[in-house]
Structures are given as C-alpha cells and as structure tokens.
Amino acid sequence: MSTAEELGERKIINLILDCLDQMPNMPVPFGDDVSAIDIGNEKLAIIKTDMLVGKTDVPPGMTRQQAARKAVVMNISDLAAKGVQPLAILASIGVPRDLTAKDIQKIGKGLNEGAREYNAYVLGGDTNEASDLIISCVAFGICEERHLMRRSGANPGDIVAVTELFGRTSSGLKILLESLSAPPKLRKELVRAVYVPHARLKEGLALAQTQAATASIDSSDGLAWSLHELSVASNAGFLIDNLPVASEAKQFAKIHRLDPAELSLYGGEEYELLVTIKPRLWEKAKKAVEHIGTSLIKIGVVTEEKDLLLKAEGKKVLIEARGWEHFKTV
Amino acid sequence: MSTAEELGERKIINLILDCLDQMPNMPVPFGDDVSAIDIGNEKLAIIKTDMLVGKTDVPPGMTRQQAARKAVVMNISDLAAKGVQPLAILASIGVPRDLTAKDIQKIGKGLNEGAREYNAYVLGGDTNEASDLIISCVAFGICEERHLMRRSGANPGDIVAVTELFGRTSSGLKILLESLSAPPKLRKELVRAVYVPHARLKEGLALAQTQAATASIDSSDGLAWSLHELSVASNAGFLIDNLPVASEAKQFAKIHRLDPAELSLYGGEEYELLVTIKPRLWEKAKKAVEHIGTSLIKIGVVTEEKDLLLKAEGKKVLIEARGWEHFKTV
Fold it and tell me: Around A68, how many Cα atoms within 13 Å sit in the side-chain half-sphere?
C-alpha cells in the first residue's frame, strides 16, 4: 500500500476529502484558498488554517521570530487572495522541549508582528509538546459575499495578471537549501524574499472592491501550480505570453546557468496574487492596485482550451502542473 | 535559561501572551476556552484551535480514526463549555511519511465522525509533512453575546456543578500508560472513556439558553485545575462537599489501593462541563440538562475566600492547583 511519501500532498488531501460529508450550500467549495460560512445578511465568515512545520517550512538561517511571523503571513495571504481583511489570528504551537524562554518570546513577537502588520490581532491559541517546532495558525475575517474572489470564475478572454515578478524565492531557496552562491547584495535580496514574505492584502482588498477579478489565488505553491489550480477550478486554460521573471532571478540564473523561466514558474513560498480580470474593468483594477504602490502585471489571457501554455520567442510550450509539494521530491 | 520542559505549558503561554498587542474590546479575554470576535447585532463569532500531537495526546491502542475524532471533539468541547453550537471544523494535519493511504482514510473518517456527531461539518484544512502525527483542528461557531458562558462570572453563593462523575479517564490512562490491570469489563469501560471522549454540547447549549450559569469551563485539564482556572478568572473560591467520583474509578482505586479522590480531581482528558449556577435558577438549569438525559450534579458552592477547599468526613483540605500539563511531570 502507498505511503504518504509516495502519495504526495494532493492525493492525501483527496483521500481525506472523500471521507467528508459536504455541508449543504457551501459558499466556497473544498479546495479553494479558504473556507466560508454563510452568516446571513449576505455576509460570509472566512476561515483559513495552515501549519508551519520546522523541518520542512523553516529554511536554514530563518529565525524563530521570522518563522512565527511567516506562519501568520501565509494564512493572511490566503485571505488576501480572496479579498478578505483578517480580523483575528489564532496560533496552536507545538514546542520542542529544549526551546528556551527567549526562543518562546521570539515566537510570540513574530506572531504579533505578522498579525499587526495586517491590522489583525492574535486572539488566542494553545501550546503543546512536540518533537519539532509546529506553528498552526488560523486566520479569520468577514466579507460581503459579493466581494469574495473565488478560484472558479475565470472566463475565456479574461486578462491574467500578477502583483509582482517571480523567481526571487526559488532563487533564495536554492541559495539556502542547495548552497548556491550569489554576490552579497543579490544574495541578501533573494534570501530576504524567503525569510520575510509579505501578503498582498491591500492589493487583494482593493481588487475585491473593484469587482473586476473573476478568479484569484495566492501563488504560494508556485506560479505554474497556481495557474493549474485556477484552470481546474475555472474549467479554462491559460496562454501566458509575458512570463513575469524578476531581474534578480535573471541575474541569479545567469550566474548558475539556470533557466529563469523555470525559476519563475516552478518556485513556491512566493505570496503574490494571481488573478483573472474582466477586460472591460482592466484599467480600473490596474489603477486600484497601482494606487497602493504595486503593479498589476498582465501576463496572459484565459483560453477556452484547458491547456496551460507559455508563448515565448514565437513558440508555444506546455507549462507543467507542478510546483512545491510536500512529501514528493519534484 | 529555562527550557520549555522546565517552564511548563502555562508559563509558556504567559511568555507568548506578554508579546501580544491586545485587540480593543475583546468580548472574551485571553485565556478563556475560546476566542471571540464581535460581528455586530449582538452576535459573536467564536473560534477555538487546539492541537493533537501523536506522541503526547494519543495513548497506546488508540486508533488513528479515534485520534482524529478526538482532535475534533476536544475543540468542540470548548465551544460546548461556552454554550456555542459548532458550525464548521477545519483540520491542519501533519502527516508522517510512512502513513499509508488506509491510515489517511481513517484520519479522514475520524474527522468527519467527530464533526457530524455534533452537527458540524469539516470545511477544509491543510496537510503537511511532519515527523509525528499532528492534527490541529479549528472549531467555529456563532452565538448571541448574552448566551456566551465565560469563565469569569462566578459569584459567592453560586452552586458548583458538573455534568458527570469523574475519574474514569485518569483510571483508563493508568491502565494504558502505567500498565495497571483491571477486570475485563471494567478495563473496557475505563479505556473507552479515554479512546472515545464525548463533548457535552447539548448540555452546554441547554445551559446557555437558561442563562443560569455564571461561569463555565470544560474539564479537559482535570477537575482540580479547572476549578483553579474558574477561581482565577472569577476571583472567587470553591468549597467542594460532594466530590464527584465515578463508581468505576472507585472500583479501580480499590484494586490498586489508589485514592479515588485523587483519580477524580487530578485527571485530565475528561470532557465534562464544570459550571457555576445562580441558586435561584438551579432547578431550571438542572431540568434543562436532565431533559437531555444527563445529570447536573451539585458538588459545592462558590465562596468569597479564594481557596479551593474539599470538605470530606468533616475535615477541610486544600485542593491543589494541578492537573494534566504538557512538559511538566506532575
């Protein structure tokens, strides 16, 4: 019989989903970035939980304070992608026996920092003994049902856009996990992208207000995988003709003869928004995001065919449905 | 510097709380069984998260399905103690690499079972690679603010009551963890109390409707510790004159020459309600709980003095503020 290691995260999730009775009239289906409950008056309660595990989610050199902050930010990022302001954070913490009082204070500070940066508060939680550091956070918010940006609404012809260029974190992770080198200034920037991720909350909230987005997801599992997820949920495909590659990733790729497209597509831990926008509302959406000081970068178009295609130098190549996945080495 | 092991769970929690900015006008303070957010119209959103860790929370012989069910039930129990119907459960799961597909299905079944028993649904979650089985659940519900039963309202003269006699789980844990023996029928009952805990949800909901309870807590950290927590939160003491000891615990104590009072007071993993009731509403509260088929057992009275006292055979002895605590051997 297959083990967790052979199954991979997505098959594990499906095995569990198959055991669950489904709540009638779920406002968002299983598998979207968040869960939602109808609380009346056309409002939804939005909840997300995601767990940070020391061994797999804390790269070398990341401090405990940064790890705790990241555990909060990765949950807030999912609310951001849905256009929902987080109000409260809860944290359930597994603490190894040898952590010191100072380590624990750093964790407390990181949790508070992550929440306060996004105008939320840590309201409570729980601690437990565990063999590895575990920080399982919950983010909670409330939104108007009509403002919620699901994964499932992309229509052929919609504009595909992202909030930032990609490839910094995958480069940073190569530095931290595979000991690849980089000049000091570049190294610092790439590594910082991994250690101090930011959720695109203001951008998500602004986009939700415009009602221009037909689908939205955070890119934490990598750009390619996020495209795949949107494609499945929306039953549509994508033609990407402007791959968003960060200049730092290009520089890093050049040094190590890596493919910059690969760094941009198949990374992970990159908390940008990937959205599809109604063409007639494109300017409105773009301005709303620019008003915050962020670019909304057009990278392609939604297609009727279900393929994920990358058009570069006149050729079309398939974007593979892979990305960061626990258990499986990709 | 002290390590987590030396600090103990409660000091760890205080170290973290000291780092947190406090949300203005929190409807329930830090440290109550649940967290709450004011959502307008005199309603509160109630959230709880609690983590089950394989190594410390899954005794020998407990199946993975039972463990997953317990991870849900222990969160629902906290909502039950506040008088709040759980609507949704989320589960963030840390999966060891060697778990099989069948193991994972059992976990899915256990989660669903725990939720459906209490009329809630599992709405989502997340899986991660971890070295030990971790099931961090979230329970969510909504209640009228006036129905919420906090820890903090006990007044001198109020009646102290519980929903069941105590000592089964501490006896069961002695069988499972210390290999103490018991006749087959007794063993089965005691062990089952550990493997298949029940949350007193119907009882909590009924009590909330009566508005008879001035304070309420679930007894998952043991009766003595729960009395201590209520005492601190309500700034009052307790005189217990009718210690609730289950007949099975008395039988078990007799076999091993244990103190049945000890088994009743200093156990844990016993998901009963410990409540304080306005004397003039005692009959109403009692009837509401009996209507469900459960007894509401009067065990003592709230006192002005802050001590926790047990009156037995004409003598008064101090109840120690100890119970099940992770990290610390008690």
Answer: 27
